[in-house]
Amino acid sequence: MKKYILIIAVLFAFVSCEEENIVFDSENGQTLAKFSASSILVPTPTEGASINVDVFVSTKTDSERTISVEVDPSSTATSDQYTISGLTIPAGAFGSTVTITGNFDALPEEGRVNLVLNLVDVSGSNDIVIENSPLNLEFYRECPIAAGEWTINMTDSYGDGWQTDTATGGSGLTITLNDGTVLEVGLCSPYGSAAGTFLGDGECTPNNGSEGTVTITIPQGTESAEWFFPGDQYGEIGFEIISPSGEVAGGYESADAGLLTIDYCK
C-alpha cells in the first residue's frame, strides 16, 4: 500500500510541474501590443516640440512590421497641428518608438487641442490583443516666460477671504520658479492662519475679504514657472493673472485644485 501512495504522489508532483512550466512563444504565439503611456502634455515652443512614445509588442518576426494607428473622433487637433513618424517595427524587434511632433504656428493662440490615437493593428502579428489604448496628447503653445511685474487680481464672492486647501483658510496660489523661489499670494481669511505673502505686504487684512490685487516680479532669465492653485472649498474664489504686457494670461473661477496653464505667448 505504501508503494502505491508513493507512486501517486510522484505522478501528481510531475503533472503539477508540467502545468506551471508554461513556455512563452515570442515568434508564433499570440501578440500583445500597447502604448507605453496613456496621457501626455506637449508644450510646444516656436521651434516645435517632439515627444516619443514606445509601442511594445510581445512577438518578433524576421521582417519589418507596420504599426497602424487611427485618430479618434474625440480629437480636437487638426492634421496640420502635428505629425506622426516611427510607425515601423524593425525585423527582429519587439517594438518601435513613435514620434509625435507639434506645430507651433498651427496651434491656437489660446487653450489646448487634444489628439487621441487608437492603436489598431501591427502587421504580420498573430492573434493580436491591444492594451493601454488610446493615447491622449494635449498640445498648447509654449512661449518664453515674460520677465517683469505680474499682477494677480483676486476675488471672493462671499467676502470672507480665501478658503483653499482647508475650510478655515489654507495656502494661496503659489508660483515656483526654476531656481527654487516660491511666491505665494491670496486673500486672507479671518477664520484661520494663511501662509505666504498676501496682498503684497505679508499682512492679513480680513476686513478686505472680497477683493485684492497683488503684484509679483519674475526676474530676467527665469526658464520656468509653475503656477499651482490649492483648491476652492466653497466655490467662491476667482482670480485673473495679468502679464507684464497687460494681457490676461490665465485665471479661474471656482477652479479645481492643480497646476494652471499660463499663456506666456501673451
Automatic annotation (TrEMBL):
PROSITE patterns in alphabetical order: PROKAR_LIPOPROTEIN (PS51257)
Name of the featured protein: Calx-beta domain-containing protein
Organism: Maribacter dokdonensis
